[in-house]
Specification:
251 residues, two-stranded antiparallel ribbon, Rossmann fold, 9-stranded mixed β-sheet, 11 strands, 2 domains
Length: 251
């Protein structure tokens, strides 16, 4: 173990070999007394400089942390007015719109885009406000209600009796980037079923997939949200029309 010769901490003229730990224990009270009596003492100056440097470093670090801007995440949602369905005679049927499912890759709040074949990526600081399946289910039920073509349109939380049920899935919900620009790509599959039909062969009334793509005005998430809103509006109008015609033909 290394030992140090220290002078002046016992009788005058005496010297002792002590360990570094002992020196530290001895210096603490000595440093305190020296600081009160003589702040310019070399021992005090060395320790004070060291303390000031450490304190300054900590202060600068804290200031940098406070001024460092955090990465802000922007959230986007779809917006469009319900499609207008005119010139139709309403049918006296109650339909329930069940919660849509969604393809695994789009089962997220992340905004997915495709810029290369067989590859999908996501924006880091831009996200959908809600899951694509939630958005599609909500807007389709809203549009069917606003169309006034059916006696009632129920959502999944309703306990009211219904005659028909509409189920579906979100198969695609992404931004597709190419050299010529980008597009909002939407694909929905639906199935309309008679709730009280005992024959499984007759229970399914029709099944269909709707594929839509709309150009984005710019290559950014806001433009994508606008284009996706147009795509869903168009798909919703076609779904409502097909459901209505199918039920009207059953009269």
């Amino acid at each position: 173990m290394t030992r140090t010769k220290i002078i002046g901490f016992s009788k005058p003229g005496a010297s002792h070999l002590v360990s570094p730990a002992t020196i530290g224990a001895l210096r603490a009270p000595v440093f305190s007394r020296l600081w009160r009596k003589n702040p310019s003492h070399p021992l005090c100056g060395w320790s004070l400089t060291r303390i000031l440097l450490i304190g300054l470093a900590l202060l600068l670090s804290a200031c940098l942390d406070l001024k460092q801007p955090s990465n802000k995440i922007d959230y986007y949602s779809l917006e469009y007015d319900p499609p207008r369905m005119r010139g139709f005679q309403p049918v006296a049927e109650v339909i329930k719109v069940e919660q849509f499912s969604v393809a695994p890759i789009y089962n997220t709040h992340k905004i997915i885009f495709r810029d290369k074949s067989y590859q999908r990526a996501a924006y880091t600081y831009h996200k959908w406000r809600v899951n694509p399946a939630e958005s599609v289910t909500y807007f389709l039920a809203r549009d069917m209600q606003q169309s006034q073509l059916f006696k009632a349109v129920l959502t999944r939380s309703s306990k009211f009796p219904y005659a028909y049920v509409l189920e579906g899935s979100v198969d695609e919900f992404l931004e597709s980037d190419t050299a010529s620009g980008c597009q909002a790509v939407l694909a929905l599959s639906i199935v309309l079923m008679a709730e009280h039909e005992p024959d499984t062969g007759k229970k399914i009334l029709f099944q269909k997939t709707y594929q839509m793509s709309k150009p984005c005005k710019q290559r950014n998430p806001r433009a994508l949200a606008e284009a996706m809103s147009l795509a869903l509006s168009e798909a919703s109008a076609k779904i409502i029309n097909d459901v209505y015609e199918n039920l009207a033909d059953r009269k």
